[in-house]
Design goal:
Strand 3 and strand 4 form a beta hairpin. Helices cover 36% and strands 13% of the residues. Helix 2 packs antiparallel against helix 13 and helix 14 crosses helix 15. The protein has 18 helices and 15 strands.
Amino acid sequence: MNVRRSAALLLAVLLALPLFAGCSGGTDTKEYAGTDGGGTPHTDAPKTEDTTEDTKVLDAVPELDFGGAAFRTLEQSTVYSLHLSSQEYKYEELKYSFWTEDQVGEKVNDAIYDRNRAMEERFRISIEEPTKGDTDTVKDMIVNTVLGAMDEYDLTFYCLQEAPNLIVQGVFTNWSTIPYVDLDNPWYMQQINNVTINDIYFVIESDLNLGWSEQTWMIIYNKSKATDYNVQEDLYQRVRDGKWTLDYMMEITESVYTDLNGNGARDEEDFYGMLGLYDGPPIAAFTYGCEAPMIVLNDDYTITQTVRGEKYLEVIGKLTKLFNESGGSWLSESASKEDRVDRFVQGNLLFSPMMALDLTGGDLRDFKDDFGVLPPPKYDEDQEAYHTIVNIRVPGMIVLKSAQNTEMIGAVVEAMSAYSHENVLPVYVNEALELRGTRDPESVEMLQLVLDARTVDYGYLYDAGIWMDRMRNLIKNDAWIGSPIAYIEERLEKYEDKFYVTIDYLLDYED
C-alpha cells in the first residue's frame, strides 16, 4: 500500500471526522451536495405546470441535419432487489422507457412520444426501439460490443451500481468529449459535477431519464392511520419546521404498535409503525438523510471511509434499534415491490420506505386510505437540509467507447434533456404523482421537496456495492454481537484498495 493509501487508512481508523463541508476539521473534503437549507427547492427544479404545448428550444444546439441516421439505444429494463436470506434477486420492470411506440392517451407516455418525434423532426433522425435486457445481459452486451469494436448503440442506460466495475475496463467514453453536452445546464444532475475527478464523466443523469426521478427513495405514511392512532402533530408542518428527525420517527414508530389480534405475539396481523426493509438502498436513504455517508473523497484524492466514524456508527445504531429493538417495526428481508408496497396497502403500517415509481402503480392509486409523502428524516434539528438518494441500481446514461457519431449523440442528448426538463418531467410530477398518486397539494409540495433533496457523493457514485449492499449486515442483530466495528475493520483495507483502483484509473485517464 502506498503512502497516500496508508495515510488515508490511518485517518479512517483513528479519527471520527465530521463528514460534510462547512463543518469539517482537518482534511478538506468535497462538498456534500443536496438541497438548500431546510429542504428549499433549488431554482433549477423542474416546473410543475403542464408545458407539453410549449416546445420552445432552450438548448444551444445549432441546426443540424443527420440525414435520417438511426439513433440506437441499449437499455436496462429492470431493477433488482436482494432477498436477505435466500440471496436471490427480485427483478422489477421499469414503468417508463426512453422510447414508446405510440400515443395511448396516458400523459407521461404521450409526452415521451412527442419528445422523440420532435427530436426526429428537428435533427432528421430515426429513433429506434431500444435493445433491452436485465443488468447482466446489458453488461455482457456492453463488453462484447466494445471489444468487438462494433458501433451498434449511440446511448446506453446501465446500472449505476455496476458501472464502476466497467469503467476501469475502458469501455466508456468521457462525456466531457461529447459535443454540445453542457453538464452545467439544469437538466443534468448537478451533484455529479461535485464528485468528478479531472473533469471525467463516464456516467451522467439528465431529465431525459425518468428513472432518475422514479427511483427516488422517500417515506410514505398513512395519514388516516396517523389520525386513528393519535399522532397529533402535523407531520408536513414538522418537515417544514425542520423537526422531522430520526429520533422523532423512532418515537412514533414505537408508540403506535398495536396487537390487533390480541394473541400477545408480534405477528403480521398487528399494526406497526414502520416497515423495515433489509436492503442497502433504502437503508442508505436513512444514512444519507442523516448526513452520514459511507465515503468522503478528500481534495488530495485520498478517501476517508466514514463508516468507521462516530456519527455513522451512531446512525447505524439508531437504525438497528428502529429495525430490531423498538418493537414498532415489521421487518422485510427485501425491498421488492411486493415487500414495500403490498404490506402498506393492507393498512397495517404507518410508515413505509418507497420509491416515487410506487406512487404511479395501481396498488397505491386504488388504496382507500389517505396517504402522504415525507423525506427521510434528518439527524437532528440542527441539520439544515433534508437529503435522500436515488436507488443506486437505477440506469445511468453512458456512451460506449465504440460509438462513432458523437456529434449526433451530443446534439440529441442535450436537446432531448432540455425538452424533457420542460415538457416531460413536469407532466410526470403532475399527472403520474399528483393526479394518480398523492391525494393533496401538500403531498405534492413534499414530493417536490423529496425530488429536490436527491444527493450524490463519491461513495454513492463509485461504491459498486462495496458498502451499500452491506449496510443491511450492520443493522442486523447478529452483526452487533460484540461490536459492529469488528465487522467494519475486517473489510476496511480490502474495500479501500477497490476504491483506489477507480481513483487511480481516473487520475491517469487520458481521452
